Structure formats: structure tokens, C-alpha cells
Amino acid sequence: MSDQVWIRLSEIRDAAALMELDALCWDKHSTPAQIVWNSREHYLQKCPPGSQLVAGIGDDICGYLGFDPPTPLPSNSHVYDLNIAIHPSYQRQGIGRKLMEAVKIMAAEQGICKLSLRVLATNPGAVVFYKSCGFQEQGRLVREFYLDGQYIDDILMWCPIT
User: For a FRET experiment, which of 112, 123, 124, 132 has its CA 20 to 30 Å from that of 91?
Assistant: First the structure.
């Protein structure tokens, strides 16, 4: 199936599908707070066209990988902070890996030399996936969130781009 996947930069016409994808993918195991978009305009303000790689098969959008410098500081412009979501029906089919490969190529072309992300310790499948994509733990915010009656660590991961 992964040989049928297309990847491109997000476009304004993708907003509704990407908003729906957020509603399907982000839950208490993957994010410390539910992602709620008040409107299409609100979504586009936070996730403007071109700020995500979108993956699809045929006419269906299957996932995305968002990338953004972590701060507006010029001294931090060599880093992309990532977030990724794959539609539940398309998980474990190589789409996330294709998005990771694509962002690494794009980042290298743009002079980015570090990718970083955060993942909740309650999401061990994501940690394993990120490690298989070349990410390593660079730190841990211990007991960073209190969710469902327990404290949860926030794991900081990074991957060098050569």
C-alpha cells in the first residue's frame, strides 16, 4: 500500500480533512489537551498552507506531518519541531515512515540540521516508531502532565539531519 502514497505540502483546500484528522487522532494518550478548532479560519491561522506535509492515497488524505521552527529566534532556525498524525484506518502501513523520510529530505534541502518532537510516555508505540526513524531521547520532563489521575512524563526526542 505504501507504494500508492503521495506526499505534498498542505494546501488551503486540505483544511477540513486535516481538522477531521486531528479530531480522530489526538486523544488523552497522545496529547495533554484535546485539540479543538473553533473554525476553519482558526485552523488555518495556526496551520497555514505549506506548514505540513500531507500524505494520501487516491483522493483520501491519510496523514500529515507538521513542521515549524520551535521559536522565532534566528539562532533557533536550524531546527524543525514536528508533529505527526496518521488516520487510524491507515496506521501501520508505512505512511508515517514515508512522511518522516520526506521531511528529512526537505529539511536537508532547507539547511535544517535538527528535527525535534515531544511524545507522552503513555504512547510507547509512538516512541518505538520515532526511534525506528532515527530519533533518540534528548530529555524528559518528569511528571509534566497530570492526566487521568496520574502524572505523565513528556519525552523530548531529536534526530540529526546530515
Answer: 112
Q: Determine the average pLDDT of the residues in 73-79.
A: 97
Domain with residue 94: its CATH number is: 3.40.630.30
Given the DSSP bridges, would you call strands 114-120 and 79-86 parallel, antiparallel or unpaired? Answer: parallel
Cα-based torsion angle of the residue sequence 117, 108, 7, 36 in order, rounded to the nearest 10 degrees: 30
What is the span of the domain harbouring residue 46?
2-160
Count the domains in the chain: 1
pLDDT at 1 over 60: no
Sign of CA dihedral 46, 50, 51, 57: positive
Report d(CA 108, CA 60) in Å as an integer: 28
